[in-house]
Each structure stands twice: as C-alpha cells, then as structure tokens.
Give the backbone structure.
Amino acid sequence: MKTVRTLTILAGALAPIAVAAQEPALAVSNAGAVQWGLALAFLGAATATFLSCLGSILGVSMTGQAGAGLLTEKPELAGKVITLMVLPGSQGLYGMVISLLFIFNYAPVISGEVAISVSQGVILLAAALPVAITCLTSSPYQAKVCSAGMHMLAKDDKLTGRVITMAALVETYALLGFLISFFMLNSFKAGIIIAS
C-alpha cells in the first residue's frame, strides 16, 4: 500500500514535466522566457551533489559515533578509526564531480548560447540520478560495515586491512553509479551541444 501511494505521488509530481516536455516552444532562448530545460538540468546537477553529500553526512556520522566509543577504550587506534570514518565520505565527492562535469561540459547551455528543450533537461536530470541514488544509499551501509569493523579492531587491531576491504566492496556500487552518470552526461553532450 505504501509503495502504491509513493508511486502515485511520484507520478503526480512528474506529470507536469511530462506535459511540458511536449511543448517545443519551451526550448526557445528568449531573454524573458523561462528555460525549463535548463532549470531541470541544474536540478539534476544539484541533486547529484545534494543526495551524495547527504549520504556521506549520514555515513560519516554513523562511523564517528562508533569510533568515539572505540577511542574511549583504545585511544592509540585513532589513525585507524579516522581512516574508517573517511571511507563513507567519499561518495559525496562522486556527486560533486558529476555536478562539476555538468557545469564545465555544458557551459554553452548554461551561458545561453545553446537552448535545450524540456525533454533534454529531463535527460540531463536523469543522468544525475544514478550517482545520486547509489551514493545516498551506499554510504550509510558502508558506515555500518565500518562500524562493525571497529568492533573487530577492538579485539585485534591488525585486522584494519580486512575491514577496509569489506567497506570498499560496498563502495563499489557507488562507483558504478558514478560511472553510469559520467558516461550518460558525456554521451548526451554530443546530442545536445554538438548537434545544436
């Protein structure tokens, strides 16, 4: 029931975008005209950074809480604890790189030299979603692995390498989301900027 309600809300939110995508006049680059395509593209870039950083905030916070407990018992493990705390923070960087890729590679769109339609804006928004969603979800799960690894370190501090390896396996999926967003943005560039 909850899934149906969520899908209904999502469909209601996306319906105006679908209707606007049918309007070719919205791509016209007039000084006073609202450029919905560009707005959607910027929303995608912002979403990539925002959701990725949110995941990293949650992950680093969770790992920090577990690390604080370990450091009260074994302060000599501070370097290893900080290393484990940094791991969930890397996902925020992936989202930021995708946002910067949009800003630098789509400069003609941003400056107004090339107008984009609403459907092209939706495509650019969609290109940001793989990195945004995978980083948002993987970072807290990576933090759980790191937090559990701190329990391992409490018993034997020579297990750091194994803990980092286990945490890196979770990050693999954030990296896959990053790569998909990266390749989508680069492949769409040919159709949007070069074709114009």
Remarks:
- The chain has one domain: 36-194.
